[in-house]
Amino acid sequence: MTALASLTWTDVAERVRRSTVLAVPVGATEQHGPHLPMSTDTDIAVALAERLAEQVPAVVSPAVAFGSSGEHQGFPGTLSIGQEAVELLLTELVRSATETFSLVVLVSAHGGNAQPVTRSVRRLRAEGRHVLAWGPHWDGDAHAGRTETSVMLELAPHAVRLESARAGNTAPVHTLLPRLQESGLAAVTANGVLGDPAGASADEGRRLLRQAVAELVDLVARHRPRTDTVS
To answer: Is residue 124 part of a domain?
Structure first.
C-alpha cells in the first residue's frame, strides 16, 4: 500500500506511470455511542482504501476526516462541516487530484455524506473528470451497533470499549427518520446508538470487510483506465 502523504512529488511522478488511481478515504468525526471512537467512520474508510490498494495499483490519500454530521451534534465531540462544505471540499479536491491521477475513488464510510458526495460526483463528471464514489452497504444496525462494532473489533480492538457497549434505539430506522431529521439523533437515542452491539466479534468484522473490499475492488477494476499496468 502506498500512502500519498509519505511520497515526494518526484515519487508521485514516477509512480503514476504505473498506478494512476487515487483512493480518497471520506469519513467523519462524530459520536459512535459510549463504546466506539469518534474516528470510527474515518478508520473504516481508511482501512477500505488501504485494502483496495493492496489489490489494485493505487495511491491512498490522507483521509477527509470531517463530514456532514449535524444530526449527531447533540453529543459532545462531534465535529460537522455540513453538506455544502463537504460537497465543495470534495469537488475542489478531485479537481486538483485529476491533474495528476486519471481516476479518483471516493471511499465514503459515513452515511451522512451520501448526498453531498453524490452531488459532487455528478458535478465533476459533468466536467469530464474520472471519479467514482463508493461506500459499504452492510445489512444490520444503522449506527454503532453490531455491524460497526464488529468492524472496529477487527480494525482497532484497543479502541473498542465493550464494557460500555449497550443497545440503543432498536426500532427500524425508517420509523425514526422524521423525528431524527427534525431534532437530531439525541431525540431518538440517549446513548447515540441505533441498534444493538451485542454479539459483535472480530470474526464478523473480518467477514464484512472482506465482502466490502471485494465489491470495491471489482468496481475499480471495471473503471480503471486501460492504459494502467500493474506495478
So the answer is: yes
Cβ-Cβ contacts under 8 Å for 123 (sequence gap 6 or more): 87, 91
Q: Which domain holds residue 52?
A: 2-223
How far is the C-alpha of 120 from the C-alpha of 90, rounded, in Å?
7
Query: pTM to 2 decimals?
Result: 0.94
The angle formed by the CA atoms of residues 211, 217 and 221, to the nearest 5 degrees, is 150
pLDDT, position 227:
56
Closest residue by Cα to residue 138 from 214, 217, 70 = 214
Q: Is residue 231 part of a domain?
A: no
Place 58 in a pLDDT band, splitting at 50, 70 and 90: very high
Q: What separation in angstroms does the CA of 161 have from each of 141, 144, 153?
A: 18, 12, 10
Q: Does the structure show a pLDDT above 70 at 168?
A: yes
Q: Is 230 part of a structural domain of the chain?
A: no
Residue type, 105: V
Overall number of domains in the chain: 1
Dist CA 195 CA 187 (whole Å)? 15
| Residue 148, domain CATH | 3.40.50.10310
Residue 74 domain flag = yes
d(CA 132, CA 117): 10
- CA 95 from chain center: how many Å? 20
